[in-house]
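Fill in residues.
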């Protein structure tokens, strides 16, 4: 690399500049005679003897020049950085050394050194040069910090009339990794103009145009690449389809490879057949993947492919074929725990309970699978499993239009369900394959999500738990089965939200410990009964007006996104609750700011076992009183809310008591994107409780269900087991304190209504199927960029048979801060079903008399 240092001759060059002549006169000395030759002085010794910062700076600069001339770029950068730190030369000289340092760091080829040397000098510095921005951006790309790289590279390219080719290559890499494929296509076009003889650019152009659906441009690029000889050999064709798959277009990779296999342009080698199978798997084209895997297995036996084949059959509910694949895998590798678990589930789905029990018992002998397999064994030995398995098999047959077998008729009758027969398994189980609140009662096809067996009921409380104490962790002996990181997230991608993917991509330190799934949520029997009865009576007369519902969940099987969100809004959390929690804003460097205590007193009127209201007669859902303070006993700001069920008849009523005020003020209802106190602007009022308030600013679409890895059953965060000093780290809370499990969730998309306004243009909500709690929310800005991500750590409140998210972490991606609230681990335990609480406690006059100063 050509460096602009010329540091060895720096004295003469600088002294020739008229404006700087005065400063640099001291750097040269006119001699009366030519001196005799002397041995060169040791710069290190001279450095030790230097008496001023100015002298040290000159020596260090000379040492940097010597090191650079010997291509010792790391050493040169160190010397030059130390010279700059002296801050003893002129501003022009300092600036020149800064520029030289950037080039030295790039020449070193060490991204860590580049980041150390340039990060503080470039980020936030408007005067940074395009070369410096590009160097830092390229270093970020090398470290897979693509989100930090992209804006630097974009600005460097934008500000340079002729950006260097390596800048464009780094920009292209960041755009592809962040799925900015339309921008990436434009960048690769610029690279082709710059260097049309680079075959890799043609491959990338074809792949990107395919991914973007520009098939004409893709075909044109393919034809030109073929004429230039870049797609002429089988190996080059394999490279091209591999690139298509890599940038996120596996379907086009698979179809192109199929075409070349049919024409003989690519050989049918084992490696090529494996690649074709992997592309169809990545494209989630099950039928094509099954055929492709079959071609590979016809030539050789591979346990991994047999497991994938079995899973594909499971996903298609072809459980007999799935069992055959798993049995073949076990013949090759006896005692394989994953194969035993999968075989057991496939047998269960065929109503072969005895065969399933045998396989689960074998799996239970393997430590990694003992916990989950043990749950299955207990379930299968309980006597309830056989009937449920037969019932599930019958429903599948009905969906396929098949006739029921004689055995199924004997067990189930012609069409009679458990509910019609007046039975409720164990007093808590639902019918029709659903739990009493509408979740799927059965397991997932792969068995990772176990069947629901009633959740934690009072008979199952941990022995060490005493009422009124912090909740004891009933799963304290569980150990993580895996840890998801940026390096292995691809294998879990189908179960990760975009919010969690963003955290993994953004922070090298972020990880997700994955634990066995525990379906631990239970509700009181009266909630179950009311939920079933609400099926025929609950209805919406507007997005914010509920009618006909009583006590339980209004919409056991929702038909719209708003109906599902109403289930979240009115879920049972005890008749009343009084809780004190902590909240804070955490900066990226770990500084904890805006610490506040929040106290909440809530009297639920709808989901209230002792005295539930008829919302068609009394338009009230709950009374809410909350105050914030810098110490646990103070009252700095107070809010009183009366939340209604029918906003069309009467909306939310709200009063506030500001700090040092002696009266309550009735104000218009606030909500939506009004800032939440103490959150540093990260949290809006309608983000409270994951979402609360009116639904009128969005169109709510019920997308369906999916399996997702979510925060669940982390009792350590609420019972004081985790110290706050450990939890509150920079960028994200301590990952080792977290617990994630795979559960089914409802997915709701909210998009801004025409004529309405909100800071978030789109929001994606994920609702846990067993509790109807919102557990994750992805909030996007008006341009479609992921802005904030809410993560609610769901905990079953087994002491009242409810559930709630505590704590809640809200990540603000643009600046790296996060806001965490509902931290109850180091405060008094929340009190539920508070004696003596009444609606009169929430009269404005009562609140004023008690709290006004």
């Amino acid at each position: 690399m050509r460096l602009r240092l010329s540091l060895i001759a720096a004295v003469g060059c600088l002294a020739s500049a008229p404006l700087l002549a005065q400063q640099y006169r001291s750097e040269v000395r006119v001699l009366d005679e030519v001196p005799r030759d002397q041995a060169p002085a040791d710069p290190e010794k001279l450095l030790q003897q230097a008496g001023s910062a100015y002298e040290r700076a000159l020596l260090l600069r000379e040492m940097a020049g010597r090191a650079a001339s010997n291509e010792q770029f790391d050493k040169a950068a160190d010397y030059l950085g130390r010279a700059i730190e002296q801050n003893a030369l002129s501003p022009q000289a300092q600036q020149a050394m800064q520029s030289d340092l950037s080039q030295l760091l790039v020449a070193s080829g060490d991204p860590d050194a580049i980041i150390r040397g340039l990060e503080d000098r470039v980020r936030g510095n408007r005067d940074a040069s395009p070369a410096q921005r590009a160097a830092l951006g390229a270093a970020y790309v090398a470290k897979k910090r693509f989100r930090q790289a992209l804006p630097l590279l974009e600005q460097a390219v934008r500000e340079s009339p002729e950006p260097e080719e390596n800048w464009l290559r780094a920009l292209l890499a960041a755009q592809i990794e962040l799925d900015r494929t339309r921008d990436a296509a434009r960048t690769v076009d610029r690279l082709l103009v710059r260097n049309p003889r680079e075959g890799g650019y043609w491959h990338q152009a074809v792949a990107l145009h395919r991914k973007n659906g520009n098939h004409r441009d893709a075909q044109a690029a393919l034809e030109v690449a073929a004429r230039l000889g870049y797609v002429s050999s089988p190996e080059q064709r394999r490279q091209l389809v591999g690139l298509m798959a890599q940038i996120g277009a596996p379907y086009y990779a698979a179809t192109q490879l199929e075409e070349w296999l049919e024409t003989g342009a690519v050989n049918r080698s084992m490696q090529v057949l494996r690649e074709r199978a992997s592309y169809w798997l990545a494209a989630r084209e099950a039928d094509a993947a099954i055929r492709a895997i079959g071609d590979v297995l016809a030539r050789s036996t591979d346990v991994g492919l047999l497991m994938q084949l079995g899973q594909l059959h499971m996903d298609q509910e072809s459980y007999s074929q799935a069992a055959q694949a798993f049995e073949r895998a076990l013949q090759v590798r006896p005692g394989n725990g994953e194969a035993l678990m999968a075989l057991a589930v496939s047998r269960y789905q065929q109503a072969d309970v005895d065969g399933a029990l045998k396989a689960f018992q074998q799996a239970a002998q393997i430590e990694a699978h003992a916990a989950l397999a043990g749950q299955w064994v207990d379930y299968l030995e309980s006597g309830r499993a056989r009937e449920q398995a037969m019932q599930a098999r019958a429903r599948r047959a009905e969906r396929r239009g098949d006739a029921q077998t004689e055995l199924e008729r004997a067990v189930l009758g012609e069409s009679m369900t458990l509910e019609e027969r007046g039975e409720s398994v164990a007093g808590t189980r639902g019918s029709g394959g659903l739990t009493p609140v509408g979740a799927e009662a059965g397991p997932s096809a792969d068995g990772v999500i176990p069947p629901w067996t009633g959740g934690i009921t009072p008979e199952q409380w941990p022995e060490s738990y005493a009422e009124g104490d912090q909740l004891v962790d009933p799963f304290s002996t569980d150990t993580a089965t895996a840890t998801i990181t940026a390096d292995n997230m691809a294998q879990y991608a189908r179960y990760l939200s975009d919010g969690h993917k963003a955290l993994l991509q953004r922070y090298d330190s972020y990880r997700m410990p994955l634990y066995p799934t525990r379906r631990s949520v239970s509700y009181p029997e009266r909630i179950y009964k009311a939920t079933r009865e609400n099926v025929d009576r609950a209805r919406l007369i507007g997005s914010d007006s509920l009618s006909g519902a009583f006590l339980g969940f209004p919409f056991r099987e929702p038909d719209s996104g708003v109906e599902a969100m109403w289930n979240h809004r009115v879920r049972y959390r005890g008749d009343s609750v009084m809780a004190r929690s902590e909240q804070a804003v955490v900066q990226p460097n770990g500084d904890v700011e805006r610490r506040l205590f929040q106290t909440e007193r809530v009297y639920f009127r709808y989901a209230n076992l002792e005295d539930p209201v008829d919302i068609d007669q009394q338009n009230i859902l709950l009374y809410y009183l909350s105050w914030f303070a810098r110490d646990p006993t103070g009252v700095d700001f107070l809010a009183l809310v009366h939340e209604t069920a029918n906003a069309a008849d009467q909306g939310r009523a709200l009063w506030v008591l500001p700090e040092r005020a002696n009266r309550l003020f009735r104000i218009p209802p606030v909500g939506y994107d009004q800032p939440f106190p103490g959150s540093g602007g990260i949290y809006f009022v309608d983000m409270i409780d994951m979402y609360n308030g009116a639904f009128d600013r969005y169109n709510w679409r019920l997308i369906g269900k999916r399996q997702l890895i979510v925060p669940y059953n982390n009792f350590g965060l609420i019972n004081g087991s985790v110290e706050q000093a450990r939890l509150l780290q920079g960028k994200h809370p301590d990952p080792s304190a977290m617990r994630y499990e795979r559960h089914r969730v409802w997915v709701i998309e909210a998009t801004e209504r025409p004529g309405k306004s909100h800071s978030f243009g789109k929001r994606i909500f994920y609702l846990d199927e067993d509790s109807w709690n919102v557990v994750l929310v992805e909030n996007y800005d008006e341009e479609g960029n992921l802005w904030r991500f809410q993560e609610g750590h769901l905990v079953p409140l087994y002491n009242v048979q409810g559930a709630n998210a505590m704590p809640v972490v809200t990540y603000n991606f643009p600046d790296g801060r996060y806001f965490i609230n509902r931290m109850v681990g180091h405060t008094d335990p929340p009190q539920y079903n508070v004696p003596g609480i009444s609606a009169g406690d929430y009269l404005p006059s009562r609140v004023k008399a008690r709290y006004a100063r």
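The chain has a mean pLDDT of 84.
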